[in-house]
Amino acid sequence: MTMQLLSTLNTLAMLAPPQGAEFAAIVPGIIVTLVALAFIIIDVFHRKGTPRDYLAYFSVIGLGVAAASCWYLWDSPLEAPTFFGMLYLDRFALFFSALASISGALAILCSPAVLRSHKMDRGEYYLLVLFSVTGMIFMAGSADLLSLFIAFEVMSIPIYVLAGFLREDSRSAEASMKYFVLGAFSAALMLYGIAMIYGATGTTNLEMIAQNLYYLEGGEGQHQGFGLAMFGVLLIFSGFAFKVAAVPFHIWTPDVYTGSPTPVVGFMATAVKAIAFAGMLRVFVVAFPLDSLRGGFFGYGWIDIAFALSAFSMVLGNVVALVQNNVKRMLAYSSIAHAGYLLVGFTAANAHPRFFLHNDAILFYLVAYTFGTIGAFAVLSYFGRRGEAVETFEDLGQLGIKYPMMGLVMAVSIFSAAGIPPTAGFLGKFYIFRSAIDVGMQTDEFAFIGLAILGVLSSVAGVYYYLKVLIYMYMKPEKRVFRPLDHTGPKVAMVVCALMTLYLGLFPARAVEIAQESVLDFSGVPASVQATIDLGQAALEAAQAE
C-alpha cells in the first residue's frame, strides 16, 4: 500500500502543470474573493441613511467578471490536478463556476428593495452571497475530499446566515435555525464518511482513492477495509442528498423556503443544488467507480441508492405540492421533485461507464432550472414588501392583469418548471428522460424505462399545481391590494431569466454543445470512462467537421 501511494504521488508530481500555470485554476474563485475584500473596504465608507444599491451592482459586476473569466479559460484546461492534487481546471469546473456566479448575480439583483423594505439594507448580505459563491467555485473544481469539504462549508455557512437575515421575522429565524442544525448534521455525516474513506484507503485524493479501492477489492484486506469504505460512500452520499433536497433528506426544505428572504430562496434552490450535483458527480465518478461500489439493480451500491431516492423524490415532491396553499412552500416541494428528475439522469448516466456522456443532460437541465426558478422568485421578490408580501395562491389574484410584465415572466417560469414547450424546462426534462430510456433500451433493464415513465407521470401531475399559479394570477378575483417594490434590479433579473428560458427552449444547440464539452473535459476519470470520453470527443469533432 505504501509503495503504491508513493508511486501515485510521483505520478501526480510528474503530471503537474508548469509552475504558474496552475494558478489559472483559482482565477474565478480569486476574482470573487477579491471583490468580497474590496466590498468590505467600500462598505466601511458608506454614508449612513443612504441606499446600498451601488454595493449590489458592484457585486453583480464582480460576479459577471468571474463568469467571463470562465469563458476566457474555456480553451485552456489543465490535464492534471493543481496545488498538489487539490483542484482541477477543466471545462466541467468552469461550467459550474460560471453557473454559480450567474445565479448569485441574479439573486443579488432581486435583493436591494426587499432588504430596504425589511429595514435590513446591510452590506453583509451581499458579502455573504459572494463568499458562498466562492465556496461553490472551489467545490466544483475539487480533486480532494478535504478541499471539497472545506469548499462545501464555505458555501453552506453563509447560506445558513442568509436564511435568517430578516432577524425581526420569526419565520426567518426559524428557517435559519432548522437549516443550520440539519445542515450541520449532514456535514457531520459527510465528514465521518470522509474519515472512513481515509481510514480504508490512506488518502483523500479522489484519483488515489479509486486506485487504492481497486487494491482493497482484490487484496487480503477486502473484508475489513473495503466494508469500511462502502459505509463511507453511503455517508458521503447522504451529505450530498441533503444539499440537493432529495427524499428522505428533504425535511428542511419547506420551512426554510417559506421563512428565508425570497431572493435567498432563489439562490439556494438553484446554485446550491447545481454545485451539489457537480460535487456528487466528481466524487462518485472519479473516486468510487468500482462495480462493487456502484452496484446496480439491485446490488445495493450508490446507483441503487440514487435510483430509490429519485423515485421517492419525484412522487413525494409532486404529491405534497398538490395540496399546498403557500406559493413558496409549493415551490419547495417542486424543488424536491426536480431533485428527483436530476437523479434520474444521474442514475442512468453513471450506471455503466459507457453511458457517461449522458451526464450532459444533467448540466443542461440545471441551466434551464436555474433561469426558470430564479425568474419565479424574482416575481415574488417584486411583491415582497414587508407586511404585504405575496405568499398564498389567493394573494396572486389579478396580479397578472394589473402587472402584465410580471404575469408574463411568471408564466414563462411556470411553463418551464412544468416542462411545457417551447421553454427550456421542456427540453431539460426531455433530455433527462430520453437518456434513461436510451440506457434502458441498451441494457434491457426495464428499471430505467420504468423510472423515466414514473418521472413523466409525476411531471404531468405537477402541471396541476404549476398552472394553478397562472389561474389565480389571471382568473381569480383580487383579495388584497399589493404595492410592488418598484425597483430596477428585479425587473432586470426577470427579463434576463425569461429571455434565457425562452432562448434555451427555442435555440438549445449551443447550450447543449457547451454541456457536452463540459462532460467531455471531465478530469480524473478512470480508464473505462476515459475510453467513452475519447469516443465521444471523436464523434463531436467529426460532427463539427461536417
From TrEMBL:
GO molecular function: NADH dehydrogenase (quinone) (non-electrogenic) activity; NADH dehydrogenase (ubiquinone) activity; quinone binding
Chief localisation class: membrane
Domain NADH:quinone oxidoreductase/Mrp antiporter transmembrane intervals: 142-445
InterPro entries (UniProt xref): NADH-Q_OxRdtase_suN/2, ND/Mrp_TM
Transmembrane segments annotated in the record for this chain: 20-42, 54-74, 94-113, 125-143, 149-167, 179-198, 226-252, 264-288, 300-323, 330-349, 361-384, 405-426, 446-467, 488-507
EC number: 7.1.1.-
Membrane topology classification: Multi-pass membrane protein
A biological process term (GO) from this entry: ATP synthesis coupled electron transport
Gene Ontology cellular-component terms listed: endomembrane system; plasma membrane
UniProt KW keywords: Cell membrane, Membrane, NAD, Quinone, Translocase, Transmembrane, Transmembrane helix, Transport, Ubiquinone
Highest taxon in the source lineage: Bacteria
UniProt keyword NAD, yes or no: yes
Reported function: NDH-1 shuttles electrons from NADH, via FMN and iron-sulfur (Fe-S) centers, to quinones in the respiratory chain. The immediate electron acceptor for the enzyme in this species is believed to be ubiquinone. Couples the redox reaction to proton translocation (for every two electrons transferred, four hydrogen ions are translocated across the cytoplasmic membrane), and thus conserves the redox energy in a proton gradient.
Subunit-level organization: NDH-1 is composed of 14 different subunits. Subunits NuoA, H, J, K, L, M, N constitute the membrane sector of the complex.
Name of this protein: NADH-quinone oxidoreductase subunit N
Species in which this protein is naturally found: Lujinxingia litoralis
